[in-house]
Amino acid sequence: MAVPRQRILDLVKLQCRVFNTTYNPERLRLGSRILHQRLKGPSVASYYPPRIGAISQLRSLYPEHEILDEEEEDWLEHLNVAKSRGKAPPKKKRTAAESKKFNKRK
Fold first, then answer.
1. To pair with 103 at 20 to 30 A between CA atoms, which of 11, 43, 62, 82?
2. CB atoms within 10 A of CB 69
3. What is the mean pLDDT of each run of 10 residues along the chain (106 residues)?
4. Residues whose CB is less than 8 angstroms from the CB of residue 27 and which lie 6 or more positions away in sequence, other chains included
5. Contact assessment for residue 24 and residue 30, using Cβ atoms and an 8 Å cutoff
6. By the 8 A CB rule, do 84 and 75 touch?
7. How far is residue 43's CA from residue 7's CA, in Å, rounded to a whole number?
8. Basic and acidic residues compositional bias: what residue ranges (predicted)?
């Protein structure tokens, strides 16, 4: 005597509800096994040393060493040349009295 398929499906549905598993009578590939696994990202990331993106970060990590940034040196030299020629950006106004907006000409 064979058990009807619907009765077996009802039993599997109840079993899934009791054991908190996914009810999947068609046996589709849902990927739930992979989604329930522990994440690998943090353990893989901890294997490698931290990334240093800029020379300023390198300076903060190793303050006892003198680390030169050639691009920054070139930029500072460019600014000094521009200041000597009078072509540098103007100083930032800190008060209302210094600002041109409040010094109206009559």
1. 82
2. 14
3. 91 95 90 86 87 84 88 92 90 76 61
4. none
5. yes
6. no
7. 46
8. 95-106
